[in-house]
Design goal:
This protein folds into four domains: about 70 residues, no CATH class; about 90 residues, no CATH class; about 150 residues, no CATH class; about 80 residues. The protein is of the alpha/beta class. Helix 3 packs antiparallel against helix 4. Helices cover about 20% and strands about 35% of the residues. The protein is extended, with a radius of gyration of 33 Å.
């Protein structure tokens, strides 16, 4: 006996839902729940059936005739948890180097970051493995794989060792923990100068962390693979660190020398200085007539918190209490670009092109020598020596190309991950400021109070801070 109704069953393209439409001329028809469920199963709907809705349909079929009903839903996959690294000790970075505000409102710039000492054999970092997600299932019974959880690698630097599973990192010497470029974890011994850098001390070039309990005058050079901490001031000296640099007082360089940090630079003020930091530049008082570059951010927001003159460049953001002055002193703020990375990418591409051309010529020359071997059976001694030299050149070029390709991918990934650029004046921005966001340029011709600048729809726009 034919049923007194017909049914349409449509399954969504992603198979995560199914729709049912009942057709019947007799509004008083009788429906049986199991009969409908069996028919749906025959049509491919085997998971996620809404039994409560099916029961309602059977109890009051008149309400549901010719009405589309979502009768089944699949189960979406549950994402897993990415692997992460737990640091089990303090590291020398800007985040731990914030000054303490006293009860009377003054700021103590002297008791800031303590040297993060560790002992040999101490656990420094622990990798927590990725947790896989749960599979989903479609209404047709097919399994849906969850998005893969991302893995992460502990990057060992100097004087550390990983266990066999590469999940635990230990110190191999007594010293200070320091994070350098690419989040490498190192333990460096500390070189300490108990006073000013002078002719009795000379220039310093140390594979580790340097602590200077005085000033660094013009003409001297201090270089460290780890961090540099200077309790006094820096004049027109050359200061370079693979890690972070902290200068308790500030930089008064008279347009001489430079300060270059692989990670962060923290100081009280910069005057007529040339400064670079791979990540953040954090200045407490003022930046005056200086060239400042930072891979991520430049921040000048304590006490005066003022930027006047010079050129300030940051990959992501520049923040200050006051930018410029009432005299409209020319000041350039550039954000949203990483000139060092982009220049390096250009150089890598040029080097790869040159290597490919040299490799082509080398292979061509080796091919000619192979043809001589096929014709004569062997090569003369001078040709044999040339063949060996060309083979070594080919191997070297292929190795260099692999390394260049890997570096190119790293740079492109970092550039693709750029965050939206922003410039913020927490109190006021005066006229005379030139804002540069990538290719976009805007000259500030009026005073702005408590304003944020960013690019929207291809233009530099402003919005008030609340």
């Amino acid at each position: 006996m034919q049923p007194a109704y017909t049914m349409e069953v449509s399954i969504a393209a992603d198979k995560m839902s199914a729709e049912l439409i009942l057709h019947a001329e007799d509004a008083d028809l009788v429906l049986r729940e199991e009969e409908l469920a069996d028919e749906l199963q025959k049509r491919g709907v085997v998971y996620g059936l809404d039994r409560a809705l099916l029961q309602h349909v059977c109890q009051t079929p008149r309400k549901y005739i010719d009405v589309p009903l979502t009768i089944a839903r699949g189960k979406a996959p549950t994402p897993g948890k990415d692997a992460w690294i737990e640091y089990t000790c303090q590291t020398a970075t800007a985040q731990e180097g914030k000054p303490k505000e006293l009860e009377d409102g003054r700021v103590d710039y002297y008791n800031v970051t303590r040297i993060a000492n560790v002992t040999r054999g101490q656990l420094l970092a622990r990798k927590h493995p990725a947790v896989p997600g749960e599979e989903g299932i479609t209404v047709t019974g097919e399994k849906v794989a969850p998005p893969p959880a991302k893995d992460i690698v502990i990057r060992p630097g100097k004087n550390v060792v990983l266990n066999e599973e590469k999940t635990l990192l230990y110190a191999t010497i007594d010293g200070q923990v320091s994070l350098t470029e690419n989040q490498k974890i190192n333990v460096f011994p500390v070189y300490e100068v108990n006073g000013d850098v002078n002719f009795n001390v000379g220039n310093i070039d140390f594979v580790g962390t340097v602590v200077i309990r005085g000033n660094v005058p013009t003409g001297f050079r201090v270089k460290a693979s780890g961090d540099i901490r200077i309790y006094g001031s820096v004049e027109g000296a050359e200061i370079e660190a693979g890690g972070s640099i902290e200068i308790k007082n500030g930089i008064a360089a008279q347009d001489k020398g430079h300060v270059k940090a692989g990670v962060d630079l923290i100081c009280s003020y910069i005057q007529n200085g040339n400064v670079y930091a791979g990540r953040d530049v954090i200045v407490y008082h003022s930046i005056m007539f200086s060239q400042v570059r930072a891979g991520k951010s430049v921040t000048c927001t304590r006490t005066k918190g003022i930027i006047i003159g010079g050129t300030i460049q940051a990959g992501e953001k520049i923040t200050a209490r006051v930018i410029g002055n009432q005299s409209s002193t020319p000041t350039v703020l550039e954000v949203g670009a990483k000139p060092e990375l982009r220049n390096e990418l250009k150089q890598v591409n040029q080097q790869m092109q040159a290597n490919y051309e040299n490799l082509r010529k080398t292979k061509q020359a080796l091919s000619v020598l192979d043809q001589i071997v096929q014709l004569r059976g062997e090569l003369p001694p001078e040709k044999k020596a040339m063949q060996i030299k060309l083979t070594n050149t080919r191997i070297m070029l292929e190795k260099e190309l692999k390394e260049l390709e890997a570096r190119k991918n790293e740079i492109e990934a970092e550039l693709d991950g750029d965050s939206p650029a922003v410039v913020t004046a927490q109190v006021v921005m005066y006229p005379g400021i030139k804002l540069v966001f990538g290719k976009q340029v805007r000259f500030i011709k009026q005073e702005f109070s408590r304003t944020r600048f960013l690019v929207l729809e291809g233009e530099i726009t402003s919005s008030p801070l609340y």
